[in-house]
């Protein structure tokens, strides 16, 4: 399941779509940058993100 993660870099806040999974016994993480604000069409972006993976 993909989650929205908030990163604070300096004084700016950035949002990422993140999915964590196991591959060959190791934990892997895929991220996609969303922007400084969470977009309105977040559900559509999540489905596109899963198709990409």
Describe the protein's architecture and organization.
The protein contains one helix and three strands. It is an alpha+beta fold. A three-stranded antiparallel sheet has the order 1-2-3, with no helix packed on it. Strand 1 (3-9) and strand 2 form a beta hairpin. The radius of gyration is 12 Å and the shape is flat. The termini are close together.
Residue fraction in strands: over 45%
Q: Indicate the mean pLDDT.
A: 94
Largest sheet: 3 strands, antiparallel
| Proportion of residues in helical segments | 10-25%
Low-confidence stretches: none
Q: Give the tally of structural domains.
A: 1
| Structural category | alpha+beta
Q: What's the helix count?
A: 1
Element pattern in H and E? EEEH
Instruction: Calculate the terminal CA-CA distance, rounded to whole Å.
Output: 12 Å
Tell how many strands the DSSP assignment holds: 3
- How are strands sequenced across the largest beta sheet? 1-2-3
Please state the overall shape, judged from the principal axes of the Cα atoms: flat
| Rg, Cα atoms, Å | 12 Å
Write a concise keyword list for the protein shown above:
single chain; 53 residues; alpha+beta; three-stranded antiparallel sheet; 21% helix; flat
Short description:
The termini are close together. This protein has one helix at residues 42-52; strands at 3-9, 12-23, 26-35.
Secondary structure layout:
Blueprint (H helix, E strand, L loop, with lengths): L2 E7 L2 E12 L2 E10 L6 H11 L1
Antiparallel strand pairs: 1-2, 2-3
